[in-house]
TrEMBL record:
UniProt family annotation: Belongs to the strictosidine synthase family.
Superkingdom of this protein's organism: Bacteria
Keywords linked to the UniProt accession: Glycoprotein, Membrane, Phosphoprotein, Transmembrane, Transmembrane helix
Entry protein name: Gluconolactonase
InterPro entries: 6-blade_b-propeller_TolB-like (IPR011042), Strictosidine_synth_cons-reg (IPR018119)
GO molecular function, one term: hydrolase activity
Membrane spanning stretches: 29-47
Length: 387
């Protein structure tokens, strides 16, 4: 009887060959992928950066330890929710009747009334700019003046009718109208944050000044430039005597003063520097003190980029979507109170981070009302002031 073929051996050999071929294909695919990754990495490293950053040795951040004016505390930790309809209440203002107004990132502006016991009522929609309303303040005629990031400087009548006051200055666009204050003569001082036209990590990395301080004249109905070369021009506040106006330079941790009267009229200087974070909006109380919202405490990586332009060049090449976390606000609520002379009186904290991303602090009716921006906690809050 003839010998039968050894099918088991043949099958084993076929399986072995198949596995070998499969391993070869996997190795080949792996080598191709590795080559693509290495080539992509080389191209990425050799590609020019979209920015040429300026070097800056930022001062060391102030300490939150005991005996410092920035000493950590829990003054914000007991904050009460006033309204949750505005998710990101960038700025807060009040009308003559004591009702609160605030805008949201989706364009809507809300009104919150209070009962006889000072309890907040449900927020009501007042207007919709179809943009992003940030700065809000009433003029003497009862119109709500709005600095809208997308639309420019607006006036909203009590009926809700919206009118554009200015979207250009000296023949150039108002790129990012942010915050404002109104003088007794009706002049409106407001910030044009950056000619980037939006908030971008790339501008932080570049570390160059793209912001402006603007003034709108209600008589001539024209906007003019008062001051250029600001590092992310943000919050605006007039002094009680209206002899100067402050503007926050968020990316350099300072408040700049522009003189409107007196021997220094038309010049600027530093009002307060080396803040413990990125200053946002500024409001003034009845004592003439300035309250400053600190959107986030200092970010060590950002200061490192400023000291190392090569690192900034590298980071600017990355997609913006990958960088949002690098500039997200720390979960540490923070605000500061300054005297009219620029002395830090004290700071308010929530180190637990239940309230954070603070943009605005308004001293009104025995409370501090607190606003935030996208990336921070949501809703309008308040804490009681103690004597």
């Amino acid at each position: 009887m003839p010998n039968l073929p050894d099918f088991s051996a043949t099958a084993a050999k076929d399986v072995s060959n198949s596995k070998h071929s499969s391993h070869k294909r996997i190795r080949s695919i792996g080598l191709i992928l590795l080559s693509v990754i290495l080539l992509g990495g080389i191209v990425f490293l050799l590609a020019p950066s979209p920015i040429e950053p300026a070097k800056w040795d930022a001062p060391a951040a102030p300490s939150f330890q005991e005996a410092s004016p920035w000493q950590k505390n829990n003054k914000f930790s007991s904050a009460q929710l006033v309204a949750d309809a505005p998710k990101s209440p960038e700025f807060i203002t009040f009308d003559k009747e004591g009702s609160l107004y605030t805008g949201d990132a989706d364009g809507k502006i809300y009104k919150v009334r209070f009962d006889a016991a000072d309890n907040p009522q449900e927020a009501q929609l007042f207007a919709d700019t179809k943009g992003t309303p940030n700065g809000l303040k009433f003029d003497t005629n009862g119109n709500l003046i709005v600095a809208d990031i997308q639309k420019g400087l607006l006036s909203i009548a009590p009926s809700g009718t919206i009118k554009v006051l200015a979207d250009q200055v000296d023949g150039t666009p108002i790129y990012l109208a942010n915050e404002l204050d109104i003088a007794q003569d009706g002049s409106i001082y407001f910030s044009d944050t950056s000619n980037y036209g939006r908030v971008t990590f790339r501008e932080i990395a570049e570390n160059k000044p793209h912001g402006r301080l603007l003034k709108y004249d209600p008589v001539t109905k024209r906007a003019t430039v008062l001051l250029e070369g600001l590092y992310f021009a943000n919050g605006i506040a007039l002094s009680r005597e209206e002899d100067y106006v402050l503007v926050s330079e968020s990316y350099h941790y300072q408040l700049t003063r522009y003189w409107l009267k007196g021997p220094k009229m038309g010049t600027s200087d530093i009002f307060a520097d080396n803040l413990a974070g990125f200053p946002d909006n500024i409001t003034t109380d009845e004592q003439g003190h300035f309250w400053v919202g600190i959107f986030t405490t200092r970010i060590p990586f950002v200061d490192q980029m400023h000291r190392s332009p090569w690192l900034a060049r590298f980071m600017a090449k990355l997609p913006e979507s990958l960088l949002s976390g690098a500039s997200a606000p720390a979960k540490h609520g923070l605000a500061a109170e300054f005297s009219a002379e620029g002395k830090l009186i004290g700071s308010w904290h929530d180190p637990e981070g239940l309230l954070y991303g603070v943009t605005t602090v308004v001293n009104h009716g025995g409370y501090l009302y607190i606003g935030t921006a996208p990336g921070g906690s949501q809703g309008v809050h308040r804490v009681a002031l103690t004597k």
